[in-house]
Write a structure and sequence with these properties.
Length: 255
């Protein structure tokens, strides 16, 4: 997995502080920005986060480039609706040799790993066979519809890979660009940093949290699963490791 923070709102904490202050001030947001030095910004944001006044967090956003993750992960990720996504398309990208993500439990079991890799290789071979067969039939169809050979072959390849991609497994590696505002990110961390989250998306959430804390440490100081700043919400399904989890996500620790 590779996660990079490729863009974010400049001076995000000053933007949030000025936006929040504007709600209670007769002066303009620009004037408020001019009056905000780093200490004033941090002090005000501490109070803001404690009060739970989170709507100003929607004014700042963070964009991540994510690679080396499975379709299992991205299917979970896009459930977080207040966000923007751009994902590599299996419809337009012909995967001559697809990469795949192997769960740790499978990697650590020699017999399971051999079975898994055999299945992945079979999927790749089946994909190639389907593309070849479908390209031929689509080319014939498009020629019969009056396309010239060059156009028919190009259209046939696109149609073939569009159908052949159905054979790819959830393990298939994917790339995605994700943009979220800070309020959505905090909600994302609450759900996906939890020990009960699926292991791959939890690893992604940890990486994203580590990156945004470098840029906006006060805003994300208490971020992580919900048990970081309150009781565990999982009830009988709790992991039972609240002390360990809180220590992991403390601001003076690296996530």
């Amino acid at each position: 997995m590779r996660v990079e923070l490729i863009a974010h709102t400049p001076e995000p904490e000053r933007i949030v502080a000025a936006s929040a202050k504007l709600c209670y001030s007769p002066v303009s947001a620009v004037s408020l920005l001019d009056d905000l030095d780093p200490l004033k910004t941090m002090t005000f944001l501490d109070k803001l986060m404690d009060l739970g006044h989170h709507s100003p967090l929607e004014h700042i956003s963070f964009t991540f480039a994510v690679e080396g993750v499975s379709r299992v992960l991205t299917h979970q990720l896009v459930r977080h609706r207040i966000a923007s996504y751009s994902q590599q398309s299996q419809r337009y990208v012909k995967l001559e040799q697809f990469e795949y993500i192997t769960p740790p439990a499978i990697s650590e079991n020699a017999e399971a790993k051999a079975i898994f890799e055999k299945a992945m290789n079979a999927d790749q071979e089946t994909y190639h066979q389907l593309v070849e067969l479908l390209e031929a039939s689509y080319t014939e169809r498009y020629l019969s519809e009056g396309m010239n050979m060059q156009r028919a072959k190009a259209a046939a390849e696109k149609s073939a890979i569009e159908d052949a991609r159905f054979v790819f497994p959830n393990a298939c590696e994917s790339k995605i660009v994700v943009t979220m505002n800070a309020r959505s990110l905090i909600n994302f961390f609450e759900h996906r940093c939890c020990n009960r989250a699926q292991w791959e998306i939890r690893n992604l959430a940890d990486e994203m949290l580590f990156l945004v804390r470098r840029i906006a440490p006060t805003i994300f100081k208490h971020s992580g699963p919900k048990c970081v700043s309150g009781p565990c919400p999982e009830g009988k399904m709790t992991c039972g490791k609240i002390v360990v989890v809180r220590n992991k996500y403390r601001m003076d620790e690296e996530v």
